[in-house]
Design a protein that fits this description.
Blueprint: H1 4-16, H2 20-23, H3 26-32, E1 33-40, E2 46-48, H4 49-57, E3 69-79, E4 82-90, E5 92-93, E6 96-97, E7 100-111, E8 114-126, E9 136-137, E10 141-144, H5 150-157, H6 161-164, H7 179-191, E11 195-200, E12 203-214, E13 219-226, H8 236-250, E14 256-262, H9 266-274, E15 278-289, E16 292-302, H10 303-309
Length: 310
């Protein structure tokens, strides 16, 4: 953990880079950025120091633009001369919150007695699309929406090939988790009113979603991913499923939830059966995983079946 001096110092440094008088000055921006500075844009482009300095100098701000609020500001010392900064910036205009907040992460390094930014990444998070459903709490599991700190937590969890092959991704095709991908993952949770983070003892371990929600036929499909291998096969996934099913059948008044699962994913099948899902069909050789064809199983549960048992 960084001390209070670190917090105030890096808060000021980050605030400076949002000030119009700093952004418009090539010398001022250059003084804040290391020579080997890189920025990862949400478009996938990588920007050098020279590109960023020129872009900020040519930036045109609207007349009513104000400095953004820096919320959930966190400073983490990752080495004696290196610090990670995480926060959410929200810009107000005309007294209201802009539809686009941004999750930001920066790495600062001490060079010749001065802190300079060596890396920055910003991921837009449309607040107007975020869902406000209260957290769904069970005995051991909490289902909740995402927040700024979850980007780093998801990055640290990574993408375990042994886990992702259960979702139909061949081990050799699993892409390593990056902070940009983690930011996109967080954004997808926030934007989707039917998606939740799965949390155990305050730690992010996965996600659970309702897909293809049809309020006319009162049906949906469900998907769950537990990305922390340490908590697998301990009943936490089953608890998360039950929490979501109860919410779907009582709060959303859905009638039916279906799932699709690879036939070799025995752990998931046991969890679904434990929660009351019934086998309804098999789609032969529907997924090509690790060089072999595999069947998909279709399972489903009706609201009255679940509520009669829970």
């Amino acid at each position: 953990m960084a001390d209070e001096m670190d917090f105030e110092l890096f808060l000021k440094l980050e605030q400076d880079l949002h000030r119009p008088e700093v952004r418009s000055s090539r010398d001022a921006v250059s003084a804040h950025l290391a020579d080997d500075f890189l920025e990862f844009g949400r478009s996938g482009h990588v920007y050098s120091k020279a590109i960023v300095v020129d872009a900020l100098a040519e930036e045109t701000l609207s007349g009513d633009a104000t400095l953004p609020e820096l919320r959930d500001f966190t400073v983490k010392r990752i080495a004696n001369d290196t610090v990670l900064v995480l926060y959410r910036s929200v810009r107000r205009s005309g007294g209201s919150i802009s539809p686009n907040a941004t999750l930001r992460s920066s790495i600062w390094k001490l060079e010749d007695g001065r802190w300079r930014m060596v890396f920055h990444q910003g991921t837009a998070v449309p607040q107007v699309a975020s869902h406000t459903t209260a957290a769904i709490r069970g005995q051991n599991v909490v289902l909740r929406t995402a927040g700024p700190d979850d980007m780093e937590a998801r990055f640290i969890l990574g993408n375990d090939p042994e886990i992702f092959q259960m979702f139909g991704v061949s081990r050799n095709d699993v892409k390593p988790m990056s902070r940009e991908r983690a930011g996109g993952w967080v954004q997808s949770i926030i934007e989707n009113q039917y998606a939740w983070i799965v949390e155990i003892d305050g730690a992010l371990v996965g996600e659970i979603r309702l897909n293809n929600v049809d309020r006319t036929d009162r049906r949906a499909s469900m998907a769950i991913g537990i990305y922390d291998a340490k908590v697998l096969s301990k009943g936490f996934g089953s608890e998360a499923i039950r929490l979501l099913l109860h919410y779907a059948f009582t709060e959303l008044n859905l009638h039916r939830i279906g799932i699709r699962v690879l036939a070799f994913n025995h752990r998931a099948i046991r969890a679904y059966e434990k929660c009351g899902f019934i086998f309804e069909g098999r789609e032969r050789e529907a997924a090509f995983v690790n060089g072999e064809w595999h069947d998909d199983l279709m399972m489903g549960i009706i609201g009255r079946e679940f509520l009669s048992q829970n």
